[in-house]
Amino acid sequence: MSEDFIRVKDFLKEYQKISDSKNKKNQTIKIYTFIESGQYKGKKLLLPSLEKTRSTKSIVKACVFNVIRQNLRNKIFIEAFGGSALMAAEALSNFALKSYAIELDKNAYKIAIQNSKIDQNLNVIQGNTFEILPQLIEKLTQENIPIFLYLDPPFDIRKGFEKIYEDIENLLKNLNRKNIEKIIFEHHSKIELPQNIEEFQKNKSKKFGLTTLSFYENTL
């Protein structure tokens, strides 16, 4: 392993020391994590700068796939606000038919493209989730395959996202929801999401410090 790469948990543990050392050498710190379950377990994935995006914690990721794994096979998984496509890659490892990651930040997108090489069915799209997601859902609805939608908005990283949950709720109300089977939110624990969003009902919620997962099921 090159000394220019560091595992994310070690980066977080010794951030200042590592950062100072690399800055003196004028080098970029490259952070990585691993796929934790399924057919690609142990494969390395790169992460973007933690100053720009917020990577999903391992314990949160494990919870998501422990809940949905048995129903994920041959479904389509969409990761909105996708960062480095970490969840989309994990979904394919757990036998999703195809997965998509939508990411606005150009640097994160470039890393997601590198990570997409793990599987030809991992599709990465650069752009605004609020513009791209309705188009993608409309296109995929024609394939008549159930969709799992994962929403992980940047609630504590980027300015201008103060109304992010209200905006997402409005987005969902205007989507073609015909083939969406499940919606999973990764959100700030201070935010209490509604029990129902249109025909979707919250049936599970798990808290991990500042992060909470809310699982919604299509009741139709």
Strand-helix topology:
Blueprint: E1 5-7, H1 8-13, H2 15-25, E2 30-34, E3 44-47, H3 58-72, E4 76-80, H4 86-93, E5 98-103, H5 106-115, E6 122-126, H6 129-141, E7 147-151, H7 164-173, E8 180-188, E9 196-197, E10 200-208, E11 211-218
Parallel strand pairs: 1-2, 4-5, 4-7, 5-6, 7-8
Antiparallel strand pairs: 2-3, 8-11, 9-10, 10-11
Quaternary structure classification: single chain
- Unreliable runs, pLDDT <50, ≥5 residues? 1-6
Approximate shape: globular
| Structural class by helix and strand composition | alpha/beta
Order of helices and strands: EHHEEHEHEHEHEHEEEE
> How many β-strand stretches?
11
Mean pLDDT across all amino acids: 86
Helix content range:
25-40%
The count of helical stretches stands at 7
Largest sheet: 8 strands, mixed
Q: How many angstroms separate the termini? A: 50 Å
Q: Strand order, biggest sheet?
A: 6-5-4-7-8-11-10-9
Pfam families: Cons_hypoth95
Keywords: Methyltransferase, Transferase
Protein name: 16S rRNA (Guanine(966)-N(2))-methyltransferase RsmD
